[in-house]
Design goal:
single chain; seven-stranded mixed β-sheet; 5 helices
Amino acid sequence: MREIQARGCAKLTTLQGLQNCPALEVVGIPMSMLDVTALKGLPTITLAFDIYELGKPKAKGQLVTISKPFIEAINSLPAVKLRLKGPSGSWHGTKDFDLMVLGQFQTVQSLQFDEFDFSCSLEELTWLVQLQKLENLTFYPRGNMSHRLDGGVFDSPRKVKALQLKICQEAKIKPPSHVVG
């Protein structure tokens, strides 16, 4: 088994039982996930989740965000690839989602926006600078950021660092040591 999909299973909070699946490469998880420790012994795995599961803001002016326990569960893995599905094209919910929360994923090596489109300035991407282990970044191929960022594919640590440095320059913030080092 190389891939398992459990997105949308709102009552699922653990992946216990998957630790004996050494060929597993991709796990689609619900936003209710609290325990991914079963994946710790596996090579770098891709975790896919759907921002749509968060719903709409409860009040006007609020942003929908990812829960702290969910982020902590993902951060318990030493290295992870994230594939995010979310608003694109006809759904204009990106203004309702807190992109800044993505900067809290400390062990992310690869980040792919799959059918997740948003539009913002480089200054609004400062959350990308916080991702110290990021080596690969892909924006939704037909999306706004791909057009804004010359294709939106940053497929090497060097290219990711160059983008992070450009973000720091545009936002007029001092680049952290992992960006300039």
